[in-house]
Amino acid sequence: MAAKLIDGKAVSQKIKMQVKTRVEKLAQQGIVPGLAVVLVGEDSASLTYVKNKKKTCEALGMRSDLHQFPDTLTEQELLAKIDELNSDPGIHGILVQLPLPQQIDEFKVITAISPEKDVDGFHPISVGNMMIGKDAFLPCTPHGIMELLAHYGIDPAGKHAVVIGRSNIVGKPIGQLLLQKDATVTYCHSKTKDLANFTAQADILIAAIGRAKFIDRTFIKPGAVIIDVGMNRDENGKLCGDVDFEDVQETASFVTPVPGGVGPMTIAMLMENTLESAEKGLAKTKQA
Ligand SMILES: Nc1nc2c(c(=O)[nH]1)N[C@@H](CN(C=O)c1ccc(C(=O)N[C@@H](CCC(=O)O)C(=O)O)cc1)CN2
């Protein structure tokens, strides 16, 4: 039997419609959620993502300002821009598109963003709060994965989740979020010996490796849920994930496609975080 498709495009559409309704409600109180997106350099994929973020904001009735700079921008200039956005009352979320050019220290930039406007959930304060299960903006891709699992009735409790990848924006946080839902979590990475030994024990497998179609049926346990976070090009230049989607069909129970799986959820969760930041701001104003 073929695995069930986890349709990130459809689920993200539903979430965006819910966000739109809440944005309309907020507008009645005179608040328009505002997202500032900062792009440094000319990376074509990054440019596509930021344009998509802006377009989505606008479609949902939110404000979006794109601040685009050449790749010669200095770290100080970028920090000055972030300072300005931190104190702009019309901006509820600040996002610096990654990766940044090498002359700019990513960590310095992320920590310069006010945690109250950190809609990417990358600030160490957001990460710390997430780790201990306190209120925080959750990083958009891991948050999107958790939403997908919930939407399809996949409860991580008591399951063995294996995460391949240990990046700060996907691998590490998704493991923590699964742990909070009572999964038993194993992290694998580039130095893991005998990877298949671990992946074959996974009830939920998160593939964030960065190698086209690397995970095939030989790596997975029958009935496993496979979440593909990869974004690669195959030998014909076609977009594909870390999982060989066709090959795992008869073995997996659920699988996300690429494109149309985790990717669209990233943008939807960013919209939700920006809206929530604006809602929190309003609640604070009312309390004062
Ligand atoms: N500041 C950030 N930088 C980066 C993030 C992030 O969350 N915050 N994540 C990625 C890039 N990214 C968003 O920024 C992103 C990547 C992919 C998609 C997506 O929808 N992909 C589609 C396919 C798109 C295509 O056809 O090329 C899909 O998978 O269906 C959305 C957002 C790194 N940087």
* Spatial shape: globular
Mean pLDDT: 97
Order of helices and strands: EHEHEHEHHHEHEHEEEEEH
Radius of gyration: 19 Å
Q: List segments where confidence is low: pLDDT < 50 over at least 5 consecutive residues.
A: none
InterPro entries: Aminoacid_DH-like_N_sf (IPR046346), NAD(P)-bd_dom_sf (IPR036291), THF_DH/CycHdrlase (IPR000672), THF_DH/CycHdrlase_cat_dom (IPR020630), THF_DH/CycHdrlase_CS (IPR020867), THF_DH/CycHdrlase_NAD-bd_dom (IPR020631)
Pfam family, one: THF_DHG_CYH
Protein name: Bifunctional protein FolD
Pathway: One-carbon metabolism; tetrahydrofolate interconversion
Describe the overall structure.
By secondary structure, this protein is an alpha/beta fold. The protein has two domains: 31-130, Leucine Dehydrogenase, chain A, domain 1 (Rossmann fold, 3-Layer(aba) Sandwich); 140-263, Rossmann fold. It is built from nine helices and eleven strands. The chain has helices at residues 8-27, 44-59, 75-86, 106-112, 124-131, 140-151, 171-180, 195-199, 262-287; strands at residues 4-5, 34-40, 63-69, 93-96, 160-164, 184-188, 204-207, 225-228, 232-233, 239-240, 254-255. The strands form three sheets. It has a six-stranded parallel sheet with strand order 1-11-8-7-5-6. A three-stranded parallel sheet has the order 3-2-4, sandwiched between helices. Strand 5, helix 7 and strand 6 form a beta-alpha-beta unit. The relative contact order is 0.16. The model has no long low-confidence stretch (mean pLDDT 97). Residues 49, 95-98, 120, 140-141, 231, 239, 258-260, 263-264, 266-267 line the site of the ligand Nc1nc2c(c(=O)[nH]1)N[C@@H](CN(C=O)c1ccc(C(=O)N[C@@H](CCC(=O)O)C(=O)O)cc1)CN2.
